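ARCHIVE RECORD
Type: protein–small molecule complex
Small molecule: 4AD
Source of inputs: curated submission
Record status: active
Notes field left blank by submitter.
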Amino acid sequence: MDKEIRRKSIATILADGSELVGKKVDVKGWVRTRRGNKNVQFVALNDGSTINNLQIVFDLSRFSEEELKPITTGSSIHVQGTLVASQGKGQSVEVQAEELEIYGTAPSDYPLQKKGHTLEFLREKAHLRPRTNTFGAVLRIRHALAYAIHKFFNDKGFYYFNSPLITASDAEGAGAQFQVTTLPLNELPLTEDGKVDYTDDFFGKMACLTVSGQLEGELGATALGLIYTFGPTFRAENSNTPRHLSEFWMVEPEMAFYEIEDNMELAEEFIKYCINYALEHCKDDIQFLNDHFDKGLIDRLNFVVSNDFVRLPYTEGVKILEESGKKFEFPVFWGADLASEHERYLVEEHFKKPVILTDYPKEIKAFYMKLNDDGKTVRAMDVLFPKIGEIIGGSQREENYEKLLGRMNELGLEGMDWYLDTRKYGTVPHSGFGLGFERLVLFVTGMQNIRDVIPFPRYPKNCEY
Ligand code: 4AD
Ligand code: MG
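STRUCTURE (tokenized, with ligand):
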């Protein structure tokens, strides 16, 4: 091998192809396929930098069959050679191999031999599935979306604010939290009245993994003005659906001086920005997913970015559902928490557009949402998407100390004086929302199951790797 030739990624070689023709290149990657005859062998090489493979041509006057034998699907190799214009169809350039180094062979029990494995099969091989075209595409899109999120907020003057993952408060009041403890579970220390005694626990009190960074985010926003969190959140709900994970990533912007209308405007602009970013920067990957899984994907993405979202109060949404004449599995009535089937009816059948549903009954929403003048509804907003249902949940926050305290007392929430202090000292109107990152990735990739858009999904009875 010639040490002077610097390695290039396959993405770079394919992008700069015409300038590099005639030059020596150095490539490394994993073999997708090898085929050919007694005179010439073709290897499709992939290094993860792009969905596209680079064709390596081995001339059998230069390499022996014996030398090429270990190059099977899944093996890893290093090649130097000359980049030439390709005579074959399917690629514009290819490498005429001159030097070969084999890093690792892949015996015939390599699980990803053939194309077209089912997604269920690949879920059981989650440690290897990033090497498939499909998961390569999904993971590159996931990365691009994460970058777009940081870029969007940074460019708007938001600060990235890190809320804790281990917490002693329950942000959503839902009680579906995972506990964090170092207490001996076989002999739990008990208090006199038979409850768990946390005095000797690591934190000296009950602690859990966070379900949301919002409450701490509000502390950031009432100091820095505009903040966003972006980190893992954990929910111990027993939800075995294609849209729920036990560990998922959430993006939570929180804005001082924003009212509900500003919040809706930001949410719509934000989500369109992310989708546009992916459309622009992940063309090949999105095209691949469109061609192989979801023929309507690109049209759907373009449709969402080029249309205004419908804004509709919950009360009107319920009326539409009641008058739809549709048989739903779950009943609809004013006060009901809407199920995914209801949300999707509004979005996919009635409006045929994303919908921002607002002003929900206070009973079905979290304690911190601002009460409307009617005394019955709160300034909530859920953004509902085709195929996904709820992608964003947010609200204007109750900034009135007395009202917030009253609501917390009603619900028996205690030990949150630190949160109430934001309303006690220099309170301001403020708003925020949470975007489920995997739901966004699900929408942009057109995948059907949220377990296929995160490298190592966690869900009930599954914690591999
Ligand atoms: O609607 P949620 O529960 O809202 C909050 O947690 C607020 N604290 C957000 C805020 O105002 N700062 O969750 C927000 C979003 C949902 O709209 C959904 O996209 C996603 O998080 N989400 C989940 N995604 C995957 N798996 C789950 N189990 C999810 N639960 C919620
Ligand atoms: Mg919600």
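CURATOR ANNOTATION: The pocket of 4AD (ligand 1) is lined by residues 171-172, 212, 214, 235, 239, 244-245, 248, 250, 252, 390-395, 432-434, 436, 438-439 (CB under 6 Å).
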